[in-house]
Amino acid sequence: MMPLPHTQRFQADDAELKRYADLMDYVGIGFLLRAPDGTMVLRNAQADALLGGVATPRWVDEEGLALAAEALPAAQALATGQAVRGRVLGVSDGENVQRWLRADALPVFADDGALHRVMLTLVDVSKRKQLESTVQALSIREDATGAYTYPYALHLLEEEIHRARRYGTPFTLAVIEMDKLAQTEQRLGTPATDAALDDIARQVRKCLREIDIVARKSRSEVLVLLPNVRMHDGIIGLERARSRIEADDRENAKRGITISGGVTEYAGENAAALIERAESLLVHAREAGPNHFCQDIDIF
Q1: 220-270 residue pLDDT tens
Q2: What is this structure's pTM?
Q3: What pLDDT, on a 0 to 100 scale, did the predictor assign at position 265?
Q4: Which positions ≥6 away from 112 have C-beta within 8 Å?
């Protein structure tokens, strides 16, 4: 999915928003625009397709419960003037959910600071929901950290590659590991080291967006998939995680726990080659010293 602007006070006129709607059509994303009174101003062709041509769809939450109009993302953004991101909603025919959509609503302001429009983007996530249902009986998340298991993360990575090849959307991949694992385990013991590894996965999740995918690749490695993000933007959240882990350890446990990682961007290869490149960058990060991320641009 193409990300919504992340500025707190996004400003645009209707001509700019129309161009944005056309771009959304091109990449397969529904786009709707509402006036401050809630009336529809613009709805692109992809939105019509996703909503089945229905002017007022029946929306349900992920539990299948009907949603009132005021509980929908666009209405909440209109009421609060704040963005609503990453809501997953179902379009129902009254009996069954026909399609699952990820919705993001963003208020758009005029030059004088008044609320001008609210734009809503819709991305079809039905395949992901179907996959989640198919593997529901399996463990797809770790209980201790909330991170995805590696097999499930590979499914999500294949989905992201498919989306990138079809729509040209970017994404960033990273492999992260605790620095000096063997020395840490010798110093702290296995139980304390395992606890520190769990904490790394939790901290990385906290520092990233809800739509980002954090998975346990192995006992010591964490795989991170950042959809719709270029590498130079993705490194910002990863650096935030690295700094937080370093600061928390320094202020509390003082165990000398830091992380390093390899960070790369999708460039048309398959999943195995992409992961291998991130692993290679992780090796370069280790060679450069602890507490460090190595990106493609660092060595090419």
Answers
A1: 999 999 999 999 999 999 999 999 999 987 876 667 899 999 999 999 999
A2: 0.56
A3: 96
A4: none
Handedness of CA 262, 297, 266, 129 (dihedral sign): positive
- List CB contacts of 26: < 8 A, sequence separation 6 or more: none
In a domain, 5, yes or no: no
Instruction: Show which of 74, 91, 125 is a domain's final residue.
Output: 125
Whether 120 and 157 map to the same domain: the answer is no
Q: Give yes or no: residues 90 and 233 share one domain.
A: no
Q: Is 219 exposed, middle or buried (0-12, 13-18, 19+ CB in 10 A)?
A: exposed
CB 224 within 8 A of CB 281: no
Angle at the Cα of 286 from the Cα atoms of 194 and 190, rounded to 5 degrees: 15
Are 226 and 234 spatial neighbours (Cβ–Cβ below 8 Å)? yes
User: How many angstroms separate the CA atoms of 184 and 260, rounded?
Assistant: 14
pLDDT value for 106: 94
CA-wise closest residue to 157 among 285, 273, 283, 296: 273
Residue span of the structural domain in which 104 resides = 14-125
Can you give the pLDDT at residue 9? Answer: 75
Sheet holding 30-34, edge to edge: 40-43, 30-34, 115-124, 97-109, 84-92, 58-60
Considering the domain architecture, whether residues 30 and 158 belong to the same structural domain is answered as no
Last residue of a domain, one of 92, 125, 158: 125
